């Protein structure tokens, strides 16, 4: 019997996950970065056990693992020959928008009109502002109430994986190889695989279920750095500052003002264009720090953008004699395509799985990163597949339930393909 996704239970799981606060924090040095992530992790540990998985483990760093052994009967030609495949999603949500007290809203049988979010009626979703909505006529749309993000990134991915595992458990005649699953903390702050146990999670390849639009398969990410400029000034009591004070805030402001207004930023770029993005600033007269995200699909592009920033920053310092500049660069991740091109079948299996679900696959680069980017460089090839979500990290976030169902079908199809071809 072919396994079928229990769509209502999948939705119920997602809604329950969404209501649990799991916001991560860049300000913390612990793993997980916030205590609230343990709340969801403990629930997922129990749910994996209830689904009959083996080797279920919630480790000291808040990573949840589970294993489903192969079920080929003795003597089957594929018994013992199929490599393990993994599926991964992350538990935390972005700190950019509140993820506390999420109140999911279900808009059934969407007919194309405006969706007004009840907690903030100024937020209205329409096909004009969100063109993918126009492709969802007749589907069920889930949003927040407009006062928080929804958390589909990536609690939808968790619900999708759980739905696929449930379908496998209810259909023991559906033959499959060994399957690993993992749910990680702190992905949104770039630490999702800092303490991922690859000695325990012994898959040959894996898939993060952390993408957006229906049909997307992503085998390419940005290269990403955090670039930090620290402007040093000289502080003196303002009543006696003439000829003595050098205000680091003003030097930093001169630097920011020198950046282009119509290019090189997230709000002015698309597709394969990279950017530099000031995302945090703090300081006083003595010292001002500006943190940038630097993104490009090529390492040469990253280097060029960092050189550009340094030139602009040094020019600002020169305009304020007595000030000085300190630059820090922290590598976040690199384009996983460098690794995935060495095992092209991993992404091709995902494309085939999407087709089997009756959806036209779209291989697209991610204007961002996933746990899979770093995992690929750690030796585990890990492309990304869609969940059906949109407007991640935003109060305007939404997801189509039926697209989540298609994602779960893709997971089942990948299990089949790896059992036959892996």
Proportion of beta-strand residues? 15-25%
SS field, number of helical segments: 9
Distance between the termini: 22 Å
**Class based on secondary structure composition and strand pairing:** alpha+beta
Q: How much helix, percentage-wise, in residues?
A: 25-40%
Identify the CATH class of the largest domain.
Alpha Beta
- Rounded to an integer in angstroms, the radius of gyration calculated over CA atoms is 23 Å
Low-confidence stretches: none
State the CATH superfamily name of the largest domain.
Zn peptidases
Q: What characterizes the major β-sheet?
A: 8 strands, mixed
Instruction: Examine the secondary-structure arrangement and name the CATH architecture of the largest domain.
Output: 3-Layer(aba) Sandwich
What is the CATH topology classification name of the largest domain?
Aminopeptidase
Mean pLDDT: 96
Extended strand count: 18
Number of structural domains: 2
Strand order of the largest sheet: 1-2-8-3-9-16-10-15
The gross shape turns out to be globular
Give an account of the 3D structure.
Helix content is 28%, strand content 23%. By secondary structure, the protein is α+β, with helices and mostly antiparallel strands. The strands form four sheets. The protein has an eight-stranded mixed sheet with strand order 1-2-8-3-9-16-10-15, sandwiched between helices. Strands 4-7-18-17 form a four-stranded antiparallel sheet. The chain has a four-stranded antiparallel sheet with strand order 12-13-11-14. The chain has helices at residues 7-18, 37-50, 152-169, 248-257, 299-318, 337-340, 344-356, 371-377, 401-421; strands spanning 54-58, 64-68, 85-90, 105-107, 115-116, 124-125, 141-143, 179-184, 205-211, 216-221, 223-232, 275-283, 287-296, 324-333, 362-366, 384-386, 389-390, 398-400. Helix 4 (248-257) packs across helix 5 (299-318).
